[in-house]
Structures are given as structure tokens and as C-alpha cells.
Amino acid sequence: DNYAAISFDNAPDGRRMMMGWMNNWNYGQSIPTSIWRSSATVPKEVKLVTTGDGVRLTQTPVTELNALRGTGNSWTNQTISPGSNLLSAVTGSTVEIVAEFQNNTATAAEYGFKVRKGANNSTVVGYNKTDSKLFVDRTASGQANFNAGFAGRHEAAMTPDNNVVKIRILVDRSSVEAFGNDGKAVITDQIFPALADAGLELYATGGSVTLNSLTVYQLDAAAELANHDFETGDLTG
């Protein structure tokens, strides 16, 4: 859900920044909102970087978005196993998740996060070690049956950096933007969960994985709006 991206020249510090329309023409007129038809993505800084796979375009949230961060909960050096949930006491419908996993020692086939979690629904953002792919699965994210093309699992190829997998997620009331390995893989998806669905889960399937570090920030868009006269995507909504 990132269409018609617009980039900005002459940005401060010579940066290249870009925003897109957070929707998709396959179902843009069918999303369960009226008259709203989605927002812009968060502003992203784009760069060309050289990797083992050649020159790649990376996208990362602009640093100004860090001002939205409120209370944070942090963990380091944790073993994540099936059936456990390090985040059982943490909730939030607008959060930022910054995590680093030690992929080379993982016995889990898949690991990651469930966000905007309710009794029967959640959006899953994770890494498939077997296929080396970052993914967002919104098949059970809430209202997802309004169009046959909406529900699905969206994937992006992503090899670990020095055996490490980094996942950064911006979660809003009706969107998820996932950034893997400093923006080498990026997925933007709309979601339509119930307002009360605000649970979080850190999971692993088929084995365990070492969590090197994790911080979950509560996001406070209202405080940032008091200091700026521009919108920064649907985090301000």
C-alpha cells in the first residue's frame, strides 16, 4: 500500500525524502472507511547503499519521527521460545518497535511480532528464516474480507546482515510499516482492526531465537503536532 510516491528536493542536510499514498487501486475504493481513503505513508529518507547483492535503495523513517516516541520498554539478550510472550504486559495501538535478532543461532523457522492483537485477530510482522524473507501477514488483521485482493501475506527478500536481522515497525490505528535491516526491505500495509485490539506479542515458531535487543515505544502524535505545522503521515491522525 505505497503508491504514487513523491520525492522532495532541496531537503535539509541534502537528504532525499519520499512519501506515498498508503493505498492500492485494486481495493482503494472498497476499504471500510467513509469518506476517508487512506493517508500518506510516513516520510522516509531514501539512500543508495552498496551491499553484497549490489547497489540497493533503502528507505528509513525520517529522524524527525523520533520526536513522537514516548514511554519505552526495553529488553536485551532474551531467548524467545514457542508459547512465551515477552510483551504480555505491553499494549498499544500506536507504537514503534525496534528489534534485533541473532539469526544464525536461531532454531526457529519464523519469528517476529503480532501487533494490534485482539481475541481472534492480529497483524503478524516477522522474518522467515527458511526463505530469508521479511513479511507482513494481514489475513486475520480485522476487517479484511471487503475485497478478495486485500487479505494476504506480503513478503520481501532479505538476507541477514552479519548474521543479524533487524526489524523496525511503525504501528498506527490503521496501518503497519515494516523496515528490515535498516530499510533494505520495506513493507507498507493498511489494516482495519477493532479499536480495542491493542495487544502485542513477540513469538517464535518451530524453535527458539535470541533477541539481542528490543525497545517498544508508545507514540504520542498529539505532542509532536503542537510543535509543527505539517502532517507526518497517518501517525498524526
Helices and strands in order:
Elements: E1 3-8, E2 17-21, E3 44-51, E4 54-61, E5 69-80, E6 95-102, E7 110-117, E8 123-128, E9 133-137, E10 153-157, E11 164-172, E12 175-180, E13 185-190, E14 199-205, E15 209-219, H1 221-225
Question: Keywords, please?
Answer:
globular, 15 strands, mainly beta, six-stranded antiparallel beta sheet, disordered C terminus, 1 helix, five-stranded antiparallel beta sheet, 237 residues
Counting helices, strands and paired strands, the structural category is: mainly beta
Query: Biggest sheet, open or closed, and with what strands and sense?
Result: 6 strands, antiparallel
User: Cα distance, first to last residue?
Assistant: 17 Å
Task: Give the total of beta strands.
Answer: 15
Strand/helix succession? EEEEEEEEEEEEEEEH
Mean pLDDT: 92
Uncertain segments:
224-237
Q: How many individual helices?
A: 1
Q: Report the principal-axis shape.
A: globular
- What is the radius of gyration? 17 Å
The strand line-up of the biggest sheet is: 5-15-6-11-12-13
Strand portion, in percent? over 45%
Helix content: under 10%
Please tell me about this protein's structure.
The protein is built from 1 helix and 15 strands. It has one helix at 221-225, and strands at residues 3-8, 17-21, 44-51, 54-61, 69-80, 95-102, 110-117, 123-128, 133-137, 153-157, 164-172, 175-180, 185-190, 199-205, 209-219. The model is unreliable at 224-237 (pLDDT under 50).
